């Protein structure tokens, strides 16, 4: 398999959406209504660059590019374009171009349209980076960036509570899954030494044979299932419909919800084809398929109906990936491409209906075909593909699905039954959306329905036509898109020859049965909707309500923990801090057998004994002090004594610093004590002071033993020699200590200065506090009170 590097083209394609996102607000202010057309050039150019790699990809080659990021940890900002990544990237940029144009018309005149363009383009760039990333850490960064940008898009109308809730729910569920995925990636790196997807795929059975396969499997699935809305994690997806319709169309067709599917397809050659994989994925997928489709028929809002069909479609894809046979993976690839086309188009149709009729409620719509003929044509094209009618790409996918599952064992029969029922329900949902709003009599409540601007109907029409052309020119379609994608998912070259011409076989018979069942469900949709609503009302509690309960429980738990740990009492904080320090010092030394040896008494000069005596006198003065102010002043004795030691040991600069810090500390503490309303002395009984004294001794003993164990270790002169060798040649300073502080540790010193400044500002605030919130600062006589 040939691998070529395309650093310039690949990097530019990846960067274009982010560049456009940065410029979007400015371009909106300058060009107004034409900003959408200009911004759409960025994803269109990225699409063209990616399309130029197709000859290489179609011939089985791979395009790679990247840069070193953190070489010490084997982390590269690396990207790899094979058949799987190429098709995903083309869907992201191609549909993304139409979405940007659609947004320009749908949100025309919106005060925050520039901000919206910026968000949607950032989201596009994040998703593009996700599917192209090769390095695991790079993939994770883009994975979480899709969660963050989708949060911004779902909560775009942040003044509405439902939009805020939907955004938080999506972020909580997908972000939590992302953290699980990160743990899985770290586990893969640590136990298998694999740092990238290309290494994972080249490792063969390394992960399947690993003793850590189960935790890796669970963690990767948590990331994929939350992102791709598998039950019970599906609840965020319908609630994400609070986002503007362009977001829904893009999120459900080619981007975020497909991220989990991409991950499963990408890792299938390394993690798939095990008993665990072929059991868990089909089970979750089949349940999600049927329940999502049933909830879609129950819904009355066009967008909610389409949202649940997306949940159902994702379940179907997970089920097929779980089966893991070559035909099942081919079916998953064909359905994924078809779904991206018809679902993106139908969501844009929903927005067009809402824009022209000012409602999305199916029961309040009808007769729009005469007033919105282009939208109606686009809806029919997309619905025919979604229903699996020939000659559309949806037909190719459905035929391959049934062909992959046509085995006589109970396992495949059960999955086949789920596929037929789910597809029939989705068939009914597709035509509920594509027919009911357009046929019949126009309701009196709808006034002046109208077709939108070209930017609104262009997107769904193009996607509907592409669904037709892909099936009619199936050989080219397979050669450029489905074969390279399926080959990458299978891990070996595959052949796909299915066409739009029906063949009289079991798969075609099952397709006809699905259509007949779908028509029956369509005709009985009102009764099914009523019955389903009654059942759900009787059940009452569900995953969506469970999410709210979980969030409330989390808040109550957080309040409980905070009220215990952050009580507002300084003595409590100090006690906990010293306890943790003492435990952290003693535990490793005792458990690890690292207690220092008993030191020998050093030979000291008489003046050194005098300094040590001063230190002991200072400690005794603090302990026996009768009032707090005396204790504070006595604290300075130890500091000044240490400064004397620095002088005696030939470090006058350190001594001067110690004198200044100790003097300033005593003065500040004394000033603060005079401002706080405290009793002059500590009048606590002995039973309260003794534990504090014991804890103080434990902390001091722990630090002393720790320092003693350090000085008993052999001295390593590497750093000392380095600083001595380079202080003057590099930093041009003879005072090594000063050079270390100012140059080699410059950033650390700046941080210390920032801490001192923050402490000074806090002390200033404390000094200015007065009863009732008054301060010593007098009002400026030149200022006037409004």
Automatic annotation (TrEMBL):
Residues 71-117 form the NADH-Ubiquinone oxidoreductase (complex I) chain 5 N-terminal domain. Keywords: Antiport, Cell membrane, Ion transport, Membrane, Transmembrane, Transmembrane helix, Transport. GO terms for molecular function: antiporter activity. Residues 613-677 form the MrpA C-terminal/MbhD domain. InterPro entries: CPA3_Na-H_Antiporter_A, MrpA_C/MbhD, MrpA_C/MbhE, ND/Mrp_TM, Nuo/plastoQ_OxRdtase_6_NuoJ, Proton_antipo_N. It is a multi-pass membrane protein. The chain crosses the membrane at residues 6-27, 34-67, 87-109, 116-133, 168-188, 210-226, 277-297, 374-393, 413-435, 456-474, 506-524, 572-592, 604-624, 631-649, 655-672, 693-711, 753-769. This is Putative monovalent cation/H+ antiporter subunit A. It comes from Jiella pacifica. The lineage of its organism: Bacteria, Pseudomonadati, Pseudomonadota, Alphaproteobacteria, Hyphomicrobiales.
């Amino acid at each position: 398999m040939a691998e070529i590097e395309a650093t310039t083209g690949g990097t530019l394609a990846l960067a274009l959406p982010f560049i456009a996102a940065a410029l979007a607000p400015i371009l909106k202010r300058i060009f107004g209504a034409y900003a959408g057309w200009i911004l759409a050039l960025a994803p269109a150019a990225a699409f063209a660059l990616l399309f130029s790699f197709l000859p290489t990809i179609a011939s089985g080659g791979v395009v790679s590019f990247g840069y070193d990021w953190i070489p010490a940890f084997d982390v590269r900002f690396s990207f790899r374009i094979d058949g799987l990544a190429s098709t995903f990237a083309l869907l992201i940029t191609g549909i993304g171009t139409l979405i940007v144009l659609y947004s320009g018309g749908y949100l025309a005149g919106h005060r925050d349209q520039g901000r919206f363009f910026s968000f949607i383009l950032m989201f596009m760039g994040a998703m593009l980076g996700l599917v192209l990333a090769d390095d695991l850490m790079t993939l994770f960064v883009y994975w979480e960036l899709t969660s963050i940008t989708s949060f911004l898009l779902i909560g775009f109308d942040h003044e509405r509570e439902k939009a805020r809730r939907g955004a938080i729910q999506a972020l909580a569920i997908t972000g939590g899954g992302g953290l699980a995925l990160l743990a899985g990636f770290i586990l893969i790196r640590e136990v298998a030494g694999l740092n990238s997807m290309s290494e994972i795929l080249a490792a063969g059975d390394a992960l399947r044979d690993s003793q850590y396969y189960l935790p890796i499997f669970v963690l990767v699935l948590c990331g994929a299932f939350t992102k791709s809305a598998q039950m019970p994690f599906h609840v965020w997806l319908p609630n994400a419909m609070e986002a503007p319709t362009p977001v829904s169309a893009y999120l459900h067709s080619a981007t975020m919800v497909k991220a989990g599917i991409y991950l499963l397809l990408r890792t299938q050659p390394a993690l798939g084809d095990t008993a665990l994989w072929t059991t868990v994925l089909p089970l979750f997928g089949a349940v999600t398929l049927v329940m999502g489709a049933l909830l879609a028929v129950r819904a009355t809002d066009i967008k909610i109906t389409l949202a649940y069909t997306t949940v159902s479609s994702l379940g179907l894809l997970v089920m097929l990936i779980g089966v893991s046979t070559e035909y099942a993976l081919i079916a998953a690839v064909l359905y994924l491409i078809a779904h991206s086309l018809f679902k993106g188009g139908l969501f844009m149709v929903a927005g067009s209906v809402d824009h022209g009729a000012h409602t999305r409620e199916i029961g309040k719509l009808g007769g729009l075909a005469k007033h919105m003929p282009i939208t109606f044509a686009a809806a029919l094209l997309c619905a025919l593909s979604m229903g699996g009618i020939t000659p559309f790409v949806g037909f190719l996918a459905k035929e391959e699905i049934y062909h992959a599952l046509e085995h006589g064992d109970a396992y495949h029969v059960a999955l086949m039954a789920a596929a037929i029922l789910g597809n029939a329900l989705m068939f009914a949902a597709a035509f509920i959306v594509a027919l009911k709003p357009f046929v019949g009599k126009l309701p009196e409540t709808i006034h002046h329905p109208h077709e939108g601007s070209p930017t609104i109907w262009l997107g769904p029409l193009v996607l509907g036509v592409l669904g037709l052309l892909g099936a009619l020119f199936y050989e080219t379609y397979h050669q450029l898109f489905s074969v390279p994608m399926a080959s990458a998912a299978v891990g070996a070259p595959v052949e796909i020859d299915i066409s739009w011409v029906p063949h009289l076989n079991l798969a075609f018979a099952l397709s006809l049965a699905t259509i007949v069942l779908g028509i029956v469900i369509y005709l009985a949709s009102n009764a099914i909707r009523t019955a389903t609503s009654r059942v759900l009302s009787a059940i009452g509690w569900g995953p969506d309500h469970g999410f709210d309960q979980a969030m409330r429980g989390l808040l109550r738990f957080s309040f409980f923990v905070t009220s215990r740990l952050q009580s507002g009492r300084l003595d409590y904080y100090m006690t906990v801090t010293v306890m943790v320090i003492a435990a952290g010092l003693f535990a490793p030394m005792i458990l690890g057998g690292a207690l220092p040896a008993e030191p020998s008494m050093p030979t000291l000069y008489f003046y050194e004994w005098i300094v040590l005596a001063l230190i002991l006198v200072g400690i005794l003065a603090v302990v026996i002090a009768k009032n707090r102010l005396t204790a504070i002043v006595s604290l300075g004795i130890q500091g000044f004594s240490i400064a004397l030691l620095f002088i005696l040991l030939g470090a006058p600069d350190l001594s001067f610093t110690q004198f200044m810090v100790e003097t300033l500390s005593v003065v500040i503490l004394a000033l603060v004590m005079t401002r706080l309303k405290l009793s002059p002395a500590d009048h606590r009984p002995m039973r309260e002071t003794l534990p504090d004294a014991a804890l103080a001794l434990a902390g001091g003993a722990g630090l002393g033993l720790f320092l003693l164990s350090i000085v008993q270790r052999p001295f390593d002169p590497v750093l000392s020699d380095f600083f001595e060798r380079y202080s003057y040649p590099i930093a041009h300073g003879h005072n090594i200590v000063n050079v270390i502080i100012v140059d080699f540790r410059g950033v650390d010193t700046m941080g210390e200065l920032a801490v001192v400044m923050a402490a000074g500002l806090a002390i200033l605030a404390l000094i200015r506090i007065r009863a009732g919130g008054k301060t010593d600062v007098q009002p400026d006589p030149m200022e006037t009170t409004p």
